[in-house]
Amino acid sequence: MPTIDTDRIQSMVAQLQNMAARAKAPAAPSETAGLTDSVGAAGAVKGGAQVDFSAALKGALDGVNGMQQSADALGQRFALGDDSVNLSDVMIATQKASIAFQTTAQVRNKLVSAYHDIMNMQV
């Protein structure tokens, strides 16, 4: 029977607290300056390259799908008795995949809402 590694759990809790603190903190001026300087008026990145919305969306969806598949594979390995996989790792991977999926669903909802708003505008 595998033992519980309390040091690893404490490390994960510290990482989660650090992420929560960064999410609550306002963005530093140096972080936002690069965003406004590199993107032009029509969404084109200065320097000639353009942001391809469909490629960005596909990349985000592929990332979420990869996270879900990775979490499922980790869960299956744990269920099959792989000693190299901890329950905490499985739970964290599953929660990350769940949060990524929920975020994707919310972005989709906002896009659909924006589409409906645009289609209902009178020209």
UniProtKB/TrEMBL annotation:
<keyword id="KW-0282">Flagellum</keyword>
<dbReference type="GO" id="GO:0005198">
    <property type="term" value="F:structural molecule activity"/>
</dbReference>
<dbReference type="GO" id="GO:0009425">
    <property type="term" value="C:bacterial-type flagellum basal body"/>
</dbReference>
<dbReference type="GO" id="GO:0003774">
    <property type="term" value="F:cytoskeletal motor activity"/>
</dbReference>
<protein>
    <recommendedName>
        <fullName>Flagellar hook-basal body complex protein FliE</fullName>
    </recommendedName>
</protein>
<keyword id="KW-0969">Cilium</keyword>
<dbReference type="InterPro" id="IPR001624">
    <property type="entry name" value="FliE"/>
</dbReference>
<keyword id="KW-0966">Cell projection</keyword>
<dbReference type="Pfam" id="PF02049">
    <property type="entry name" value="FliE"/>
</dbReference>
<comment type="similarity">
    <text>Belongs to the FliE family.</text>
</comment>
<keyword id="KW-0975">Bacterial flagellum</keyword>
<dbReference type="GO" id="GO:0071973">
    <property type="term" value="P:bacterial-type flagellum-dependent cell motility"/>
</dbReference>
